[in-house]
Specification:
The protein is built from no helices and eleven strands. With about 120 residues, the chain is an all-beta fold. The strands form two sheets. Strands 2, 4, 5, 6, 9, 10 and 11 form a seven-stranded mixed beta sheet that branches. A four-stranded antiparallel beta sheet has the order 1-3-8-7, with no helix packed on it.
Length: about 120
Amino acid sequence: QVQVVESGGGSVQAGGSLKLSCAASRSGYIGSCEMAWYRQAPGKESELVALLNSGGTATYSDSVKGRFTISRDNAKKTLSLQMNSLKTEDTAVYYCWASCGTRAGRGQGTQVTVSS
């Protein structure tokens, strides 16, 4: 199993920014992993927010495209999500996920609350 731990959540007003980080505990190179950020708002299904494949290509949900940026630091074994122009509908628990070969894991989540 790949262990990941999220950090960086918090409360912000609409229009503001937050940066989430995810630290991966893995002995190997994380550049070969597929990594992503999911979110789940109360009463809603989990949503794939952004994904970074092993080739470094990023894809985003339509709801965050142009506002969020996913990136990875292979040396530090971290995944980040820069969130700009936040909206109240971005309020959710955000989860980091990583799949490395046959092993995968998801973190405990970090709360992001956007107020109007």
